[in-house]
Write a structure and sequence with these properties.
This protein has about 350 residues and is an alpha/beta fold. It has two domains: about 90 residues, Udp-n-acetylmuramoylalanyl-d-glutamate--2,6- Diaminopimelate Ligase, Chain: A, domain 1 (3-Layer(aba) Sandwich), CATH 3.40.1390.10; about 210 residues, Hexapeptide repeat proteins (UDP N-Acetylglucosamine Acyltransferase, domain 1), CATH 2.160.10. It contains three helices and 39 strands. It has a twelve-stranded mixed sheet. The chain has a ten-stranded parallel sheet with strand order 9-11-14-17-20-25-28-31-34-37, with no helix packed on it. An eight-stranded parallel sheet has the order 12-15-18-23-26-29-32-35, with no helix packed on it. A hairpin with a 2-residue loop joins strand 38 and strand 39. The longest helix has 30 residues. The radius of gyration is 27 Å and the shape is flat. The chain starts with a strand and ends with a helix. It catalyses: a UDP-3-O-[(3R)-3-hydroxyacyl]-alpha-D-glucosamine + a (3R)-hydroxyacyl-[ACP] = a UDP-2-N,3-O-bis[(3R)-3-hydroxyacyl]-alpha-D-glucosamine + holo-[ACP] + H(+). Pathway: Bacterial outer membrane biogenesis; LPS lipid A biosynthesis. Catalyzes the N-acylation of UDP-3-O-acylglucosamine using 3-hydroxyacyl-ACP as the acyl donor. Is involved in the biosynthesis of lipid A, a phosphorylated glycolipid that anchors the lipopolysaccharide to the outer membrane of the cell.
């Protein structure tokens, strides 16, 4: 996919300085630019690279002053960083603008969908599936019975959406994600054996949610596991049955959340955090990476450690943790001296 400088300037409402017809087909860092690539200059500390870069086109701020000879064509915009971000978004939209139904696919006779969709090869639509406008289901994705998917949803290759799941508008489900598998529910009997508790609920994902690759969201035992609007989930996260995650909360990779825990709005949770079940996590809570949460958390708390402490208390305590060997040695010395006296 190639774009001319004049086309890019039109998208960004910018001004070309150089060859309007030069074409690019890839993106690069300014210091690694090669022929046929597009880059940008926003940080002044990288200015020297504009005189050596081999990139065909460079986006710069409108007030950038050229002091030496350059070979790259410039596109001048109001804000180079924002313009480059806009261009990345546009590029992704063009790249992902797939449509139509590839073959082979399986579509149940009871599934319903509009004309404006994309179904990749070997995708599967079960009984009573409902797809919204501009839904994109990539190859080898599985959409189980009675699933409802809203408008502008992307389900990438190999994702599995189990039965009864409800997904809102403008969501992205990345490859390998599993939504709606059984929750981990078992009960022991008198012999010490475990009997499975039927998981009869579902998963509800509201609008504007991203689910990372390899992330799993379990269906509820009863009722629903709920992911509220605007939640962003990284790769390889485990969300257990009946969990509820409040709107605009972000969670980093390898975090595990046990059953029936409720997480508030606008929280930030680092990687490898473990949260036990049946807890209440407040709004705007921040949890540092590798923390273990075993208690309810109030609004706006910041936690670290395992078990997690208040962030400030943890940092103060850590100073003593590091000095513990020398403190013990001093203590032993004083004890011996005391005994000798």
């Amino acid at each position: 996919m190639k774009f001319k400088a004049s086309q890019i300037a039109g998208i960004l409402n910018g001004e070309v300085e150089g060859n309007e017809d030069v074409e690019v087909s890839k993106l690069s860092k300014i210091e690694e630019g090669t022929h046929g690539s597009l880059t940008f200059l926003a940080n002044p500390k990288y200015t020297s690279y504009i005189y050596t870069t081999q990139a065909s086109i460079t986006i710069v701020n409108a007030d950038f002053v050229v002091e030496n000879e350059i070979s790259t064509t410039l596109i001048r915009v109001e804000d180079a960083y924002k313009a480059f971000s806009t261009l990345l978004e546009y590029y992704n939209q063009v790249k992902m603008n797939k449509s139509g139904i590839e073959q082979p696919v399986f579509i149940s006779e009871t599934a319903t969908y509009p004309d404006e969709i994309y179904l990749g090869a070997f995708s599967y639509l079960g009984e009573n599936v409902v797809l919204g406008k501009n839904a994109k289901i990539y190859p080898n994705a599985y959409i189980g019975d009675n699933v409802t998917i809203g408008d502008n949803v992307v389900v990438f290759a190999g994702a599995k959406i189990y039965s009864e799941t409800v997904i809102g508008n403008n969501c992205v489900i990345h490859s390998g994600a599993i939504v709606g598998a059984d929750g981990f529910g078992y009960t022991p009997n008198e012999k010490g054996e475990y009997t499975k508790v039927p998981q009869t609920g579902n998963v509800i994902i509201e609008d504007n949610v991203d689910v990372g690759a390899g992330t799993t969201i379990d269906r509820a035992t009863l009722g629903s596991t709920i992911i509220r609007k605007g939640v962003k989930l990284d790769n390889q996260i485990q969300i257990a049955h009946n969990v509820e995650i409040g709107k605009n909360t972000v969670i980093a990779a390898q975090t595990g959340i046990a059953g029936s825990t409720k997480i508030g709005e606008s929280c930030q949770i680092g990687g490898q955090v473990g949260i036990v079940g049946h807890l209440s996590i407040g709004n705007q809570v921040r949890i540092q990476a590798q923390s273990g949460i075993g208690r309810n958390v109030k609004d706006k708390e910041t936690l670290q450690g395992s078990p997690a402490l208040n962030y400030g208390d943890y940092n103060k305590s850590y100073v003593h943790f590091k000095n513990l060997p020398s403190i013990i040695q001093r203590f032993n010395t004083l004890e011996k001296k005391s005994n000798n006296d």
